[in-house]
Specification:
The protein has 457 residues and is mainly alpha-helical. Helices cover 60% and strands 5% of the residues. Strands 1-2 form a two-stranded antiparallel ribbon. It has a two-stranded parallel sheet with strand order 3-4.
């Protein structure tokens, strides 16, 4: 064991204990051990191809890297107090077992390009996992929407009854938002799948390494375009967290609807016990904590984006140690959005929807005021006039403690809509809304078909 870091050759004394503690990131970047070994193995191959390692030396280094990786995974690796991060710990482990051969590992690379490479590899895996989780909650929503294509419910604006739609139409709206999130994850991936390895500290090296071959070995789409940019920028993290934050917002809106539907005051749905919790004091409570936590996680992920944006703004080109702070918010955002999606997928799949209660809520005559106004429009009345006349009718009725349901045939005829009573029917109102993207059965079925294709792509 030693208290001297790998870079200590230039220094006559070790760093101050508090300075060393400030720079210590091992707790945050230990998750990169596998990626660091993958990057190290690819770099060994680049050194061998450049005739800087013999075949035997390359084999020794590859084996030593795998041994260190396994020891870390098994918890048997002895970390040194001087290990600032997982990268220096792995290099020290290899050098400690191979001596001079191990000391050849770092030729032509810097922690600057190594860290950037490890982070991209890890981020690509996290994003793929998060996207899979988001796809599953979207599939759960689509499955439930298909069950309720014809079941009416009050659609709302301003959290107030507005017009009748169907449960299927409402759920499809959530699925479309999540499908766009999946598109954003897919759009981000080609920009993320760029290998920084070979960029060195900022200006590559003089050793004849081949970054393109290294990129291919690591599974990246391509190698960096500019070595200085490769080690300087973290927009790939910022963009991933932005996508996660937008997705978390959509998940929080789904959670908000679950909370509203399961409010006993409405009684439209009930969360399964597996996605509810009790109270430590009140025996009767059945709290919708899964939905509440999903709603709250969106704020946390938005905070991760703000943390990254605030840290990155104003940094000059070249690696700056500020960038050590990039990993925790980025990894947290993607891990959290995946966890939230998994929980909501289960909550949606097991949600007990009370279609009778939703249909009963559609008895509110106010839901059909727009249908009344549009009937006048079909008769040639300008919309603003139709809107005014319908509004005046509603006010007159309300002043008398009445609603549209209290109008008899004579009253409807005097208003100019002889068949007005027939308008106060959710099935008729929904069936009449045949525009693409609307709540009519054919439209919702077309949406479900399109969503299936998107989610299977």
């Amino acid at each position: 064991m030693t208290d001297r870091p790998l870079w200590s050759g230039r220094f006559a004394m070790p760093p101050a204990r508090e300075a060393q503690a400030l720079g210590h990131s091992l707790d945050a970047d230990r998750v990169l051990a596998d990626e660091d070994v993958r990057a190290g193995t690819a770099h060994v191959e680049a050194l061998r191809e450049a005739s800087l390692l013999t075949d035997d030396e390359a084999r020794q280094l590859t084996d030593a890297l795998a041994t260190v990786r396994d020891a870390i995974a098994e918890g048997t690796f002895a970390f040194d107090p001087a290990d600032e991060d997982i990268h220096s710990a792995i290099e020290r482990g290899v050098t400690g077992s191979l001596g001079d051969v191990g000391a050849k590992l770092h030729a032509g690379r810097s922690r600057n390009d190594l860290v950037a490479t490890d982070v991209r590899l890890h981020l690509l895996a996290l994003a793929a996992s998060a996207a899979d989780d988001v796809r599953e909650v979207a599939r759960a929503i689509v499955a439930r929407a298909r069950e309720h294509v014809d079941d009416p419910m009050p659609g709302s604006t301003h959290v107030r009854p507005a017009q009748p739609i169907t449960v299927g139409h409402h759920l499809c709206a959530h699925a479309w938002a999540l499908a766009r999130d999946l598109g954003r994850f897919a759009d981000w991936r080609p920009r993320a799948s760029v290998s920084p390895l070979g960029a060195g500290a900022l200006a590559t090296s003089t050793l004849g390494l081949d970054p393109v071959a290294t990129a291919a070995q690591l599974g990246f789409d391509r190698a960096f375009d500019n070595s200085l940019d490769a080690v300087s920028d973290r927009d790939v993290l910022q963009e991933a967290v932005a996508v996660a934050s937008i997705c978390a917002t959509h998940l929080s809106r789904l959670a908000a609807d679950l909370l509203r539907w399961t409010d006993p005051a409405l009684g439209w749905a009930l969360l399964d016990e597996a996605y509810s919790t009790g109270s430590s004091m009140m025996p009767q409570k059945r709290n919708p904590d899964t939905a509440e936590l999903a709603r709250g996680k969106a704020a946390r992920i938005a905070g991760d984006f703000v943390t990254l944006a605030a840290m990155l703004q104003g940094l000059p080109l070249g690696y700056q140690r500020d960038l050590q702070e990039d990993k925790e918010p980025a990894f947290d955002a993607l891990e959290t959005v995946g966890l939230t999606a998994r929980a909501l997928a289960g909550a949606v799949a097991t949600l007990r929807i009370d279609t009778a209660a939703m249909r009963a809520a559609c008895a509110d005559p106010g839901l059909y005021a727009t249908d009344v106004a549009e009937t006048l429009v079909k008769q040639g009345v300008p919309f603003r006039e139709a809107h005014r006349r319908t509004g005046e009718l509603l006010k007159t009725l309300a002043d008398r403690g009445l609603t549209l349901a209290d109008l008899d045939h004579v009253g409807w005829k005097a208003f100019g809509v002889p068949d007005g009573a027939a308008l106060l029917d959710p099935d008729r109102s929904i069936a009449a809304r045949t525009a693409a993207g609307g709540p009519a059965r054919a439209s919702v079925e077309a949406q479900l078909t399109a969503l299936d294709a998107l989610l299977d792509a």
